[in-house]
Amino acid sequence: MTRHETPERRPWGSLEADVLAVLRAAPGPLTPAQVLECLGRGAAYNTIQTILTRLLDKGLTQRGPSPHGGRGHVYWPTHGTPTVIAQQMRALLNGPGDRRAVLREFTAELDPADAAVLRGLLAQVGDDPA
């Protein structure tokens, strides 16, 4: 890569999603180094630590002391997959931008079966927009 080229950036939130997937697939809590090893790509150790801390702040992971002692920590997911994905969707929806436009774009790409499920779930909620 030359001085003027920029590295290809990964999609927003994809590293968080990948880290959560690693934690969910693990048989137990993992250290940041273990998460990095499982990812098998060029992320920096400090980046993984930052992602794990952000996931902790969002309530998506829990943290405990490392069984090896010292100042290290281990992390594990707080919830199962549907809850985590729903929280991520809400976070994106509550982010900057036009909420209505985001919902319109999301629903425009739904296949008919998913649209039917969504209509049924919305009917259960009722007409209250709150």
UniProtKB/TrEMBL annotation:
Superkingdom of the organism of origin: Bacteria
Keywords of the record: DNA-binding, Transcription, Transcription regulation
Gene3D superfamilies: Winged helix-like DNA-binding domain superfamily/Winged helix DNA-binding domain
Pfam families (alphabetical): Penicillinase_R (PF03965)
Protein name: Transcriptional regulator
Single GO term (MF): DNA binding
Family from the record: Belongs to the BlaI transcriptional regulatory family.
GO BP: negative regulation of DNA-templated transcription
